[in-house]
Predict the structure.
Amino acid sequence: MAEREIYLDNAATTKPHPAVVEAMTRALTQEFGNPSSLHHKGLAAERLVKDAREAVARTLDVAPEEIVFTSGGTESNTLAIRGVARLSKGRHIVTTAVEHSSVLTPIRRLAEEGYEVTELPVDGEGRVSPDRLAQALRADTILASVMAVNNELGTVQPLEAIGRVILGHAAGGRPVYFHVDAVQAWGKIPLRPKAWGVDLMSISGHKVHGPKGAGALYVRKGVRLAPLLGGGDQEGGIRPGTENVPGIAGLGAAASLLGADLSDVAGRMTDLRDRLRRAIAAIPEVRINTPDRGAAPHILNASFPGVRGETLLHRLEMDGIYTSTGSACHSHDPKPSHVLLAIGLPPDLCTSSLRFSLNRFTTSDEIDAAAAVVARAVADLRTLVR
């Protein structure tokens, strides 16, 4: 075991903040009632849920009643996609080739049920063209789903421009719901769903030092969704079942940490990411896959020709450096990343890639130490394979 650990896999998950742990502990040990109960314990639990809803809503500048609590990003995405499809007459959906599997999988399953799906290509930085999206919209299009920040590259999509395209299409009497997977964007870049014309937006707690198993879906007032489950009237009947009060309390605590200092936090992370970028780029033959501009502040993806990404990952792990070969949801899939293939990388560069992801507490000392270890590890592994 290494003497020092440096965790650079924060796009996969983050360490829960002490304030989150405290909020969850209180919900588990003191305010443990059912929020639907009418006695004091129930009302106290209901208050925790209400406070968390308000905290999450503030981060998106939306009304609390537009927040639906879920078990995380995957459920939020599935609820948005299938919830729209079940109540819409049209049978056409538009998305991009670089979406997270929690978006692509439910959409492709709808395709198996007879829906038509258009997966838009992206440019070499992983960005979709609003003009291409405009050309893809049809009279029977019911949903366009475009992520805010790509989980492997960090690429930020032009959501404001896309929102204008969709609203323009709707002005012709053909409304299209606009869904955004903002799991990697929440707490990293400003999110303004109302200003961008977004109808549905998914977020997850464990990407921002909150708990696993707790997330939310923003549902614009007036948008109707078919629930995935049958049961009670919790969460407006959209997500029935007794609320996960400890998880929701932890999510609310995490949301409260995302205060007015977002620009300062993002600026500091950007500086550290760029510091790491310069150090990694100095390694011979390395290809940086994350865009120079228009990228979230916490993700850096790079390919190391001549070295398998998984081999490098475990070599770094021996020195206490934790990274990722891509999406954590596909860490055991030997196939090249669909995201890297979509931006035009050949399979050998896809399989030699690593993703480094920071958090708001990452230090410059950690970045410098990790970069030095990466450089040595790459040199050592190349010596072995050549």
